[in-house]
Amino acid sequence: MNVEVAVVPAAGRGTRMMDATRVVPKALLPVIDRPALQWVLQEAVAGGAVELIVVVSPGVDDLIFSHFEGMGGVDRIGDLRDVRIRWVVQERPLGLGDAVLRAREAVAGRPFHCLLGDNIMLPGVPCLGPMATASDGRSVVALREMTAAETSAYGVAELGEWLDESVVEIVGAVEKPGPEAAPSHLGFLGRYLFTPEVFDLLEELEPGYGGEVQLTDAIRMLAEGGRCLGAVIDAAPLDVGNPASYLEAITLLGLQHPATATRYRAFIESVIAGG
């Protein structure tokens, strides 16, 4: 499937990163030499997107917009220069599913990738391409192996028939079930390929887990109708949404980045040796 549109929900309030996010929106938290959101947008472009639809919250939209399009910002972000970026405001914090639904008009009936704005993938790890290849016209969810403990923090897929060694039919989905209720060991990676029908399902949903409109519930409805696949990706997202994983993201990216890798690796080794 050819996918040229990417939706990036970036409206999270960043409550786990306060007090930093009282000053800087979570999407603009620095990760090495650029804001977290920029890593995600550049991943989308590398995966074939020519149009980016970014969903932001009121009050911080101007700050985010000014980085990417104000004061010459487009000239500073390289591979995003020739990409159309559209901004959509999620007026009320009703969850990830509602944030995706806000992009409906801009998507305009096309298939689209969805990338969580606070989850960074290591550069060079293929994700969007394998998802597009896996699609036979159905929506695709990127899946990864999870520990039992992680099932309390992510959506988890209920699996059907395996189509090949890395593509499986999803027949159900549960949001943050925990180890006892998890239907499998494969959870959501934070990368999705949706057909436009997902918007109709999101429109039908009432707030669920946490009082929010859950994207997982729409995925469950797709799955129960036989309209959702899973693509297993050998990777884990770098979550900038809480202090510990934010530091992990900086460390892993810092050990790869050409401007920091050598010195930072030596520093880490010296800390370990002295610890």
**Whole-angstrom Rg:** 18 Å
Low-confidence parts: 71-76
Profile the largest sheet: 9 strands, mixed
Strands, total number: 13
How many domains would you count in the coordinates?
1
> Helical segment tally?
10
For this structure, what is the CATH class? Alpha Beta
Order of helices and strands: EHEEHEHEHHEEHEEEEHHEEHH
**CATH-level-4 superfamily name:** Spore Coat Polysaccharide Biosynthesis Protein SpsA, Chain A
Helix share bin: 25-40%
Strand line-up across the major sheet: 5-4-1-6-11-8-12-10-9
Shape field: globular
According to CATH, the fold-level topology is: Spore Coat Polysaccharide Biosynthesis Protein SpsA, Chain A
User: What is the averaged pLDDT score?
Assistant: 90
Beta-strand content estimate: 15-25%
Any overview of this molecule?
This protein has 275 residues and is an alpha/beta fold. It has a single domain, classed as Spore Coat Polysaccharide Biosynthesis Protein SpsA, Chain A, CATH 3.90.550. Helices cover 31% and strands 24% of the residues. It is built from ten helices and 13 strands. The strands form three sheets. The protein has a nine-stranded mixed β-sheet. About 2% of the residues have low confidence.
List the helices and strands and how they pair.
Elements (H helix, E strand, L loop, with lengths): L4 E5 L10 H4 L6 E2 L2 E2 H11 L4 E6 L4 H9 L14 E6 L6 H6 L2 H4 L4 E4 L3 E2 L7 H7 L4 E7 L9 E8 L4 E9 L10 E9 L2 H8 L10 H10 L3 E5 L5 E2 L3 H12 L6 H14 L1
Parallel strand pairs: 1-4, 1-6, 4-5, 8-12
Antiparallel strand pairs: 2-3, 6-11, 7-13, 8-11, 9-10, 10-12
